[in-house]
Amino acid sequence: MQSPHETGATGVASANAAGPALTAEALVRAFGGRRAVNGVSLTLQEGACLALFGPNGAGKTTLLRLLGGLLKPTTGTTRLHGQPLPGEAETRRLVGLISHHAMLYPALSVRENVRFAAECQGVIDADDATTRVLTQLRVLDRADTAVRYLSRGLQQRVSIARALVHGPQLVLLDEPYTGLDETGAQALTDALGALKANGATLVLVTHNLSEGLALATHSAIMQSGKFVDEQLVSSSGIDVPGYQAKYRALVHEGLA
Ligand SMILES: Nc1ncnc2c1ncn2[C@@H]1O[C@H](COP(=O)(O)OP(=O)(O)OP(=O)(O)O)[C@@H](O)[C@H]1O
Q: How many angstroms is it from 140 CA to the middle of ligand 1?
């Protein structure tokens, strides 16, 4: 297992020879003088997946929003493929955000919701892309149902489809498995695996260590706005019980 220090990089880094897809330098975000994110730097290549762990209030969601250009940092910069993250409309085309807020129109059908998102993102064949992503999330059989009639888990699948329909380069996921059954969770894992294989960069926030580590190429533990541990995850995976012990020591026993 290679540590970030062994890569010679600041923060999380992968060994891919291509230029970095996502970089953040010394990100700070304060709310009313309190720093929710307090000096985070990272570098991720295309196809990398960072699993981000930490206790409630550690700053994970705030960091995700900074990385996606959805929130302005107090200081520091975020770059996607070397470019400072662009304005809001442009950002939406490059970024897919999956959070626990469904962000769907309840009166519109599943298909209408996803197709509308595709059209807003400038997808050329929005109908095809919609059918493809609904098939991938295993919710095509409910395509004509108004979203308000769906269960929470099915709404989550539609919400994920909406976020992925335009094939984003950067996918930010905030507890995406919450509320999904086994089929939904597997469909999400498959969809994320396909995105990674196509070169998308993923940042996944979860409280479930084994779920997060299953997809991860890198992991980080965040506490009080800072990374207190970072590591590369080898292709053969990671010792989950060992990682859980380390997490407990850092976060619950205050050994950071
Ligand atoms: N818009 C805001 N205004 C004021 N404070 C905020 C705002 N957003 C986040 N915070 C504060 O920033 C800190 C980090 O919040 P954040 O939501 O990023 O944590 P988190 O690690 O995602 O937590 P959780 O695991 O509970 O989702 C918290 O103290 C929170 O109250």
A: 35
Cα–Cα dist 188/41, whole Å? 28
Those residues with Cβ within 8 angstroms of residue 44's Cβ, 6 or more apart along the chain or in another chain = 12, 13, 14, 20, 21, 22, 23, 50, 201, 203, 218
> What ipTM does this complex have?
0.97
- pLDDT < 70 positions in the chain: 1-19, 86-92, 254-256
| Integer CA distances (angstroms), 119 to 91, 148, 227, in order | 15, 21, 37
Measured at the alpha carbon of residue 246, what is the angle toward residues 241 and 247, in degrees to the nearest 5? 95
What domains does the chain contain, in order, with CATH numbers?
22-110+168-254 (3.40.50.300)
Distance 203 CA to ligand 1 centre (A): 17
User: Is residue 206 lining ligand 1, measured as CB closer than 6 Å?
Assistant: no
Q: What is the pTM of this model?
A: 0.87
**What is the CA(56)–ligand 1 centre distance, in A?**
8
pLDDT tens digits, 87-131:
556 666 888 888 877 789 999 999 999 999 999 888 999 999 999
Sheet holding 49-53, edge to edge: 95-98, 170-174, 201-205, 49-53, 218-223, 226-232
Q: How far is the centre of ligand 1, averaged over its atoms, from the C-alpha of 70 (Å)?
A: 14
C-alpha closest to that of 213 among 180, 184, 246 = 246
How big is the chain by its Cα radius of gyration, in Å? 18
Closest residue to atom 6 of ligand 1, CA basis: 31
End-to-end CA distance of the chain: 20
Taking the CA of residue 32 as reference, the ligand 1 atom at the shortest distance is 4
